[in-house]
Each structure stands twice: as C-alpha cells, then as structure tokens.
Amino acid sequence: MKQLATDEQTNDQPLEPRGKQTMAVHIALDTSKLDESITFYKAFLGAEPAKVRDDYAKFELGEPALNLTLNVNPKATNAGINHLGIQVEDTAMVDAAAERLKASGLVTLTEKDTDCCYALQDKVWVADPNGVRWEVFTVKQADTTPVEPRTDPPQLQATRGCC
Questions:
Q1: Which end of the chain has the least Cβ crowding within 10 Å, N or C?
Q2: Rounded Cα distance, 76 and 47, in Å
Q3: Which residues lie across from 133 on neighbouring strands?
Q4: Portion of the chain with pLDDT greater than 90, in percent
Q5: Do the Cβ atoms of 124 and 109 come closer than 8 Å?
Q6: What gap in Å lies between CA 71 and CA 86, rounded to an integer?
Q7: 75-128 per-position pLDDT tens digit
Q8: Are 60 and 66 in contact (CB under 8 A)?
Q9: CATH 3.10.180.10 region(s) of the chain?
Q10: pLDDT, tens digit, for every residue of 6-52?
C-alpha cells in the first residue's frame, strides 16, 4: 500500500505526492486504545501515520486512496460496523498482505475460494484493538450462491454474515 507524501517523511520508500490525489475515501474510527491502534494500523497498512497527536492519528495512503483517522473516545465500540475491506487486484496481493500481517504478529484468518458476498474470493482477515474487522480480498468470480456457513476464530467472528 502506497503512503502519501508527508511533511516529515519517515522511511526511504518513494511516496506518492499529495497533490496528485484527486479523490480518497475518508474513514474516521473512534478508539479507546490509541497507541495499540496506531501499532495495529502501521502493521495493517504497512505505513507510518502522517500525523499523531495525544488524541488523534492520521494515515494517508495513495493506494488505495485512503485518509484514515483514529480519534480517541473512551467509550469507543465498533457498533454499526460489520467490517471494512481493501480490494486488491489478485490472489498474489492477498497472499503478500497475509504474510506481512503475520510477520507483524497480527492474528489472521486466511480464506481461499470462499463464497462471500455472492462472489468467489480469496482474502485475509484481521481485527483492530477495538474489534473493527478488516479484510484484504480479491474477487475471483463476481456472481455466486454461497453453499457453506462460515466459522471464524473468536477474535475475528462477525456479528452478521460475511458482508
């Protein structure tokens, strides 16, 4: 995942200039565990935060185009969010993400040829410190009918179906 350029670059990777980005999804998540959340999202996104304050952190990525902020709220829950995801081009990208996440010490669930959201997919799941579930996935076949129920590990279990 490509991080946008910041005023203070913290790594040697070439970063995409901020000015070239015309659109980006913005997701603002509440967290009661800012330090743990920053550690998780650094591992999950493979990027350093663009800004960190006592009650706030911001990640800006060029690919996928994402502006993710973490906002301290002592009463934070993931109420109303089933899960979030990043769709990638192919299974090799899912596999690379899975390896990077495992190497970072995150609990992962990898699924191959899973029938989810009425599509055949390969994916890897993780959950942030507040229980927000994320998937990195690719769609292999766009229109299917699920045939098997899902069983996830406790830390990655959904409150509803897969999508």
A1: C
A2: 24
A3: 127
A4: 60
A5: yes
A6: 21
A7: 887 767 889 999 999 999 999 999 999 999 999 999 999 988 788 999 999 999
A8: yes
A9: 2-72, 84-153
A10: 444 333 333 343 455 568 889 999 999 999 999 999 999 999 999 99
Structure tokens belonging to residue 70: 């973490």
Name residues whose C-beta falls within 8 Å of residue 19's C-beta, 6 or more positions apart in sequence. Answer: none
Structure tokens at 162: 């897969």
The reported pLDDT for the residue numbered 152 is 58
CATH class of 84-153: alpha beta
Q: Which residues contact 31 (CB under 8 A, 6 or more apart)?
A: 37, 70, 71, 72, 73, 76, 128, 129, 130
Phi, psi of 50 (to 5 degrees): -80, -25
DSSP the chain: -EEBP-SS--SSS--B-GGG----EEEEEEES-HHHHHHHHHHHHTS--SEEETTEEEEEEEETTEEEEEEE-TT---TT---EEEE-SSHHHHHHHHHHHHHTT---EEEEEEEETTEEEEEEEEE-TT--EEEEEEEEES-----S-----GGG--SSS--
Tell me the CATH number for domain 2-72: 3.10.180.10
